[in-house]
UniProtKB/TrEMBL annotation:
This is Response regulator transcription factor. It holds the Pfam family Response_reg. Residues 3-119 form the Response regulatory domain. Keywords: DNA-binding, Phosphoprotein, Transcription, Transcription regulation. Residues 148-213 form the HTH luxR-type domain. The keyword DNA-binding applies. GO terms for biological process: phosphorelay signal transduction system; regulation of DNA-templated transcription. One of its GO terms (molecular function) is DNA binding. The modification 4-aspartylphosphate is found at D54. The keyword Lipid metabolism does not apply. Signal peptide: none annotated. PROSITE patterns: HTH_LUXR_1, HTH_LUXR_2, RESPONSE_REGULATORY.
Length: 215
């Protein structure tokens, strides 16, 4: 069972999302919040697997809440679900530790896929958001690719294998299966990769993998 905390300041929106999630027997909404501060408090109390966060909320907005959740409840994966798709919002959410970014206008199947991916320790961007991220990092691609290759050269061959699979969006369990190792070993590799690449999360590491041509 994937335990989800839902945070949105609009009751009707929360009701709609809750109704959509009820269609999946493997997802359970364990708590709801109408502001970012309450979302952090409830996450500390319920320890959910995934926190669905809107950006525009009172008391503490979703971006600030995402950063605080990453610091105080790191085991809870933060998945933004919002109508805001400006580059600045996407960049701030990912820099703050969010593992995924979805749009409320997207297909409900993206919501299910995003929740599962984040619960499994992977990252997930809706197709429209992924396109924006690629555009944002696409300037001066040759120079970026050269820098990315230089950063990847500092990894061991096995770390490069893990990074390539991470960049493909695979969760730790699937990476472990493909490399015939235990999941704990993959977690150690991922931690080392993030440190060596000097990136904050799996999304940023995946961007490096794409730019370096590992996929």
């Amino acid at each position: 069972m994937i335990r989800v905390l839902l945070a949105d300041d609009e009751p009707l929106v929360r009701a709609g999302i809750r109704a959509v999630l009820a269609a999946d027997a493997e997802i359970e909404v364990v708590a709801e919040a109408d502001n970012g501060r309450t979302a952090v408090e409830l996450a500390l109390a319920h320890r959910p697997d995934v926190v669905l966060l809107d950006i525009a909320m009172p008391v503490l907005d979703g971006l600030a809440a995402a950063a605080e959740l990453t610091r105080t409840v790191p085991e809870a994966g933060v998945l933004m679900l919002t109508t805001f798709s400006a580059d600045a919002h996407i960049a701030a959410a990912l820099a703050g530790g969010a593992r995924g970014f979805l749009l409320k206008t997207g297909d409900p199947r993206e919501l299910f896929a995003g929740i599962r991916a984040v619960a499994e320790g992977a990252a997930f961007l809706s197709p429209k958001v992924a396109h924006r991220v690629i555009q944002q990092v696409g300037g001066d691609r040759m120079a970026r690719a050269e820098r990315a290759r230089g950063r990847v050269e500092g990894l061991t061959p096995r770390e490069r294998e893990v990074l390539a699979l991470l960049g493909a969006g695979l969760p730790n369990a699937e990476i472990a299966r493909r490399l015939h190792v235990v999941e704990g070993t993959v977690k150690v590799f991922v931690t080392s990769i993030l440190r060596r690449l000097d990136v904050a999360n799996r999304v940023q590491a995946a961007i490096v993998a794409h730019e370096a041509g590992l996929l």
